[in-house]
Recover the amino acids of this structure.
């Protein structure tokens, strides 16, 4: 019988069934009960993404068909894995050492490497070194655009391609409370893991699939927000929309219908449009934005400061919120021209009676400056990075204020 039970969950990734059984038995003897298995890298990625459990440790064979252990290491952070890795291989010592340095160069936490079959004491020593770590998964996503076929697949929602939602909280500066959450889209590709918005949003706009894609993202977001509301969280939902989508009646009707269907009030939804896109707005879009506002949706002008729009252009659109681009926020305390744009933007938004959000608050210094200048809300790495739902739930539970 094991001396004590361990709570950590372990994913065993190995194509050799015999080896999996041997290692699983050793883990069982050591008191580890939460064990998952995958027979190659692709299957492991799927499990990391779809299993209800969050794996703490991956025990990884190097030599596997389809996607080997080294390739898998290159992708695990992209699916949100933040645990540690133990390499297990029949390969010689030098191969293991090379794999170890590759893993370290990718900032992975590697507990060590073992030859097959694993020795019980040595495996136990490595496992005892496990410490939960918090790693940034919101940045550094691959930026290689996806193909149009993948995009079409994903809009239907196939298992190998689909849009994913990440969430970043927006904090009320006066109260320190999380009042709102922005939905930031990612793409799950079975081949390449989690991809950033630059790999598919511009493509969707270019090939005319942006409305369909936005509908999918919006639907998932509204469902998520209604679930959060049911558990008692009163959060406003910010969702990014490509401005041209507003020129279609059908698109606007969909936004209204879905909100109604899932019981999310329109005044709890903020539709974000970038300043650059808002500047080139067509009359049809302007009318639609007015219509959405009359239906009590909130409208936000995103990335403000990057588009050089004039006051005259801005006042024609009934925006309720202005988000100052991070280029004028992060480091503005020591950058006179950034600070000048920040101050001017805040004054402008005040006069137009808009809520003011500072994006890209990364440090206490950034926070203090925007606080002093009179921003209402902040969004940025200082408080939280964009994260998937499971992580967001933990984040909310642990939130006790920004500092
Ligand atoms: P955005 O709407 O301005 O979102 C804020 C971006 O800044 C996000 O990048 C976020 O990860 C990043 N960010 C937040 N805080 C910080 C910080 O403190 N420091 C730094 N360096 N960055 C920070 P992300 O998620 O890569 O999104 C980029 C852009 O892609 C978004 O900018 C938005 O314009 C667009 N996008 C994302 N999701 C969607 C979508 O569903 N539809 C459309 N049309 N566009 C989207
Ligand atoms: Mg935005
Ligand atoms: Mg922005």
């Amino acid at each position: 019988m094991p001396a004590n039970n361990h709570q950590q969950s372990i994913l065993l990734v190995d194509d050799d069934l015999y080896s999996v059984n041997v290692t699983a038995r050793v883990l069982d003897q050591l008191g580890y009960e939460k064990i998952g298995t995958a027979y190659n890298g692709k299957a492991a990625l799927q499990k990391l993404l779809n299993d209800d459990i969050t794996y703490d440790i991956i025990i990884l064979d190097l030599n596997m068909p389809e996607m080997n252990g080294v390739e898998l290491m290159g992708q695990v952070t992209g699916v949100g894995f933040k645990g540690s890795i133990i390499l297990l291989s029949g390969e010689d010592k030098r191969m293991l050492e090379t794999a170890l340095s590759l893993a370290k160069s990718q900032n992975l936490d590697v507990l060590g490497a073992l030859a097959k079959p694993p020795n019980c004491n040595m495996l136990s020593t490595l496992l005892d070194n496990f410490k939960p770590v918090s790693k940034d998964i919101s940045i550094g996503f691959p930026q290689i655009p996806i193909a149009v076929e993948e995009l079409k697949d994903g809009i239907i929602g196939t298992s190998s391609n689909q849009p994913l939602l990440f969430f970043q909280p927006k904090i009320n500066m006066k109260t320190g409370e999380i009042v709102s959450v922005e939905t930031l889209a990612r793409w799950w590709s079975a081949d390449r893991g989690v991809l950033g918005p630059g790999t598919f949003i511009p493509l969707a706009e270019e090939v005319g699939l942006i409305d369909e894609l936005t509908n999918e993202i919006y639907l998932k977001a509204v469902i998520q927000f209604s679930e959060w509301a049911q558990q008692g969280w009163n959060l406003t939902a910010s969702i990014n929309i490509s401005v041209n989508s507003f020129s279609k009646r059908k698109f606007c009707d969909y936004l209204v219908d879905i909100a109604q269907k899932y019981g999310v009030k329109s005044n709890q939804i903020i539709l974000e449009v970038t300043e650059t896109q808002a500047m080139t707005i067509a009359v049809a879009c302007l009318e639609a934005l007015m219509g959405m506002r009359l239906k009590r949706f909130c409208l936000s002008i995103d990335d403000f400061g990057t588009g050089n729009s004039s006051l005259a252009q801005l006042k024609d659109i009934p925006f309720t919120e202005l988000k100052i681009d991070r280029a004028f926020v992060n480091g503005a305390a020591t950058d006179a021209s950034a600070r000048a744009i920040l101050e001017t933007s805040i004054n402008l938004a005040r006069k137009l009676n808009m809520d003011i959000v500072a994006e890209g608050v990364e440090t206490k210094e950034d926070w203090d400056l925007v606080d002093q200048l009179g921003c209402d809300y902040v969004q940025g790495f200082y408080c939280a990075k964009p994260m998937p739902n499971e992580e967001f739930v933990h984040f909310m539970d642990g939130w006790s204020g920004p500092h």
Remarks:
- The pocket of C2E (ligand 1) is lined by residues 138, 168, 184-185, 196-197, 201, 214, 217, 240-242, 272, 274, 302-303, 326, 359-362, 379-381, 386 (CB under 6 Å).
- The chain has two domains: 6-128, 148-398.
- Residues 134-139 have pLDDT under 50 and may be disordered.
- The two ends are 46 Å apart (CA to CA).
